[in-house]
């Protein structure tokens, strides 16, 4: 049986067509992505902007053509942060259904975290039971603490790279005051995460580099940093999955990217078009989380929500 999963994110729309594979994993048939910046120009009063909605619907129309020509039996289209927050969410979903025939399910942050974890665990090779998994998105960032039984606790924090970019990075390249404000906001959210985890009974010492836990990262920022670290001229998923990225290298890349203009970042190998500005807050989230939890490296995984959506449908474990 062939499945299609669609992740309607705040920055990127992604499509995976796959079927069950060996070892309870998936055999991918087709993967496509489109950076539509659905959360660009978002406001609490207006919700998703008309222009952003048009970009997203155009990408979804393209996805639907791929699905229709691929013998898919089950289509699962899930939306995350910006759609669940937007006051015009229902209108957006209705327009998508009318123009593409795709019915969108809006998932909570907790559901997003658990589904992402399923995808991560399907490809990660490390056997450590204690992990802190991070999924950096355009509108939110999910943090999942795992133990031998799977997810111990998870939180979806309102800290996404699209909103951080639009709120703080006005200059090109960003000036010291903007960088400081960006890092202060990220530091505050991570501090709140640590408080919530502690109140919920999470042993923060155990979930740290010193305690033997490992730090695992998925989604565009982390995979882009792994590609940059290897100077990949062409993105290669096999070179990304389970790549161990050192903290010192994350810091070096972050400082280097901060000094570049948008145009200079556009010319950097392995930096996907559309991420030239978003890589700054994404790198800051990665680095500041590593510092806060004492991790000297991060294990990179190019699998998450898309894979988790299909695996969950097969196994019926989360939703």
Polypeptide structure, described:
By secondary structure, this protein is an alpha/beta fold. It has 2 domains: about 5-110, 2-Layer Sandwich (Nucleotidyltransferase, domain 5); about 125-300, Nucleotidyltransferase, domain 5 (2-Layer Sandwich), CATH 3.30.420.150. The chain is about 45% helix and about 20% strand. The protein has helices at about 50-70, 80-85, 90-100, 110-120, 160-170, 175-200, 220-230, 235-240, 245-260, 260-265, 280-295, 305-315; strands at about 5-10, 10-20, 25-35, 75-80, 105, 130-135, 140-145, 150-155, 215-220, 245, 295-300. The protein has a 6-stranded mixed β-sheet, sandwiched between helices. The chain has a 5-stranded mixed β-sheet with strand order 3-2-1-4-5, sandwiched between helices. Strand 2 and strand 3 form a beta hairpin. Helix 1 packs parallel to helix 3 (about 90-100), helix 7 packs across helix 11 and helix 9 packs antiparallel against helix 11. The longest helix has 24 residues, at about 175-200. The radius of gyration is 19 Å and the shape is globular.
